[in-house]
Write a structure and sequence with these properties.
This protein starts with a helix and ends in a 13-residue tail after the last helix. It has helices at about 5-25, 50-60, 75-80, 85-95, 130-135, 260-270, 290-310, 335-350, 355-360, 365-370, 385-405; strands at about 65-75, 100-105, 120, 125-130, 145-150, 155-170, 180-185, 185-195, 200-220, 225-235, 240-245, 275-280, 315, 325, 330, 355. It has eleven helices and 16 strands.
């Protein structure tokens, strides 16, 4: 390491430390008064290597050498991008804003949004992958576990967002249709065939030398199945990108039902430095939940992520507390602690790191206390948090990640950007 690199490393470390101290010293926002008093929760990483690769990517991003990418898989706690959006903003403020990240066009479900993006789709598109039954019919769902599909020509997708790179993830298959792509009204890809003898993912790169708000349009131009997985939007600059792949009602078993060959190809193409896995709130109340089988399947899921992107770090975030209504009132789900422990064991067996959100909230009964906070930090269903609750969790996660990062032995790495 040269003297210049050493100096840059310690300047970067000092700036990060200053930002973290400033962040932690800020007074609570008006909407977050009377926060629950709980013990600070650190990220558990017995090997001290679970997040090493991610921490190294953050250093390179802070030095203007890299795009550090996060792929977050989970359930409804991530689906609305409230918690993840708050965490994304803080991480990008610290390490640089490299773009909006992966977007599913239109509004695949009520509440889906990405800050800075407006998007619409025509009526002929069908959204696939939102239910277990739909996966049984078609498991070719791509990196987000959701796809848009149509058989008709003349259908369209429009999207407006700031960026320089617009990567369209789609599928080539027998009997596929064709699409034309326009940027700011100018054709960039004309009649691209989505037909092939085999089923293969495809990525269409649309690049603008001007990094500003652009209007992207996709049009189907022939009969045949056109399947679009989504669009990854990035700036032409180093920093951090945070992709969110949360689906309402999803369980940890959901990704195992996707066509993993196609999924792994797209995930490898996206090349995240950190994969976050956050499930548990839905399956914890399943009557047929077998904890031993759950742990085995959870480890299988982590191993598949590792095989798809060997260089990526993995962080498992345990579920928040969940309560069910009983004759004695609201009680924490009976197997919540057992499920959290199963996730922890699976994470450690796979060499991943673990964050215990259930314990950070205060353990059993905490969701009830959060619901009675003023203003409330949990919703009345005793499953989901409020905006203030999710923002508080984002603060905890940011602090835990930065604490681990500052304690790590991070290095400068090779001078190049992780751009596609």
């Amino acid at each position: 390491m040269t003297q210049t690199q050493i100096s840059a490393r310690y300047v970067s470390q000092g700036l990060i430390l200053m930002m973290l101290l400033l962040f932690l010293s800020l007074p609570a926002a008006a909407s977050d008064v009377r926060k629950p008093v709980v013990q600070a929760q650190s990220i558990e990483d017995p090997s001290n290597q679970g997040l090493a690769g991610f921490y190294e990517s953050l250093t390179r991003a802070s030095q203007g050498e890299w795009v550090s990418r996060i792929s977050h898989y989970g359930d409804s706690h991530a689906a609305a991008d409230i918690l993840t959006g708050a965490l994304r903003r803080q991480l990008q403020l610290t390490f640089g804003d490299a773009g909006i990240g992966f977007v599913i066009p239109g509004q695949p479900w009520l509440g889906y949004s990405r800050s800075g993006v407006t998007s619409q789709i025509s009526a002929g598109w069908r959204i696939e992958g939102l239910s277990q039954s739909s996966i049984a019919l078609d498991d070719r769902l791509g990196i987000a576990g959701v796809s848009l599909s149509t058989l008709s020509p003349g259908e369209w997708i429009t999207l407006s967002a700031p960026g320089s790179y617009f990567d369209i993830y789609a599928l080539k298959q027998p009997g596929g249709g064709s699409i034309t792509v326009l940027l700011d009204g100018i054709e960039r890809k004309r009649n691209v065939s989505l037909s092939s003898r085999s089923i293969e993912p495809i990525r269409l790169e649309i690049v603008s030398i001007v990094d500003e708000v652009h209007a992207l349009e996709i049009r189907t131009t022939s009969s045949g199945r056109s399947k679009i997985f989504g669009i990854a939007i990035e700036h032409n600059s180093p920093g951090l990108v945070y992709d969110v792949f949360g689906i309402n009602g999803a369980r940890a078993s959901r990704p195992l039902q996707w066509n993993w060959r196609l999924f792994a190809r797209d995930l490898e193409e996206r090349s995240p430095d950190l994969i976050i896995v956050a499930y548990g709130s839905n399956e914890v109340t399943d009557a047929d939940l077998d904890i031993d089988a759950y742990q085995a399947n959870f480890r299988l899921l982590l191993n598949r992520f590792q095989k798809a992107v060997p260089h990526a770090s993995i962080l498992v975030i345990g579920p928040p507390d969940r309560a069910v209504r009983t004759s004695q009132g609201w009680k924490t789900a009976n197997r919540m602690s057992a499920l959290v422990d199963a996730q922890r064991r699976a994470a450690f067996a796979a060499g991943a790191a673990f964050y215990d959100l259930f314990n950070a909230m205060g353990g059993s009964g905490s969701i009830q206390r959060w619901a009675y906070q003023f203003p409330p930090l949990a919703q009345q269903d005793r499953v989901h948090l409020t905006f203030s609750g999710y923002r508080l969790v984002a603060e905890w996660l940011y602090a835990a990640l930065m604490t681990g990062y500052l304690r790590s032995d991070f290095t400068s790495g090779t001078t190049r950007w992780n751009n596609k």
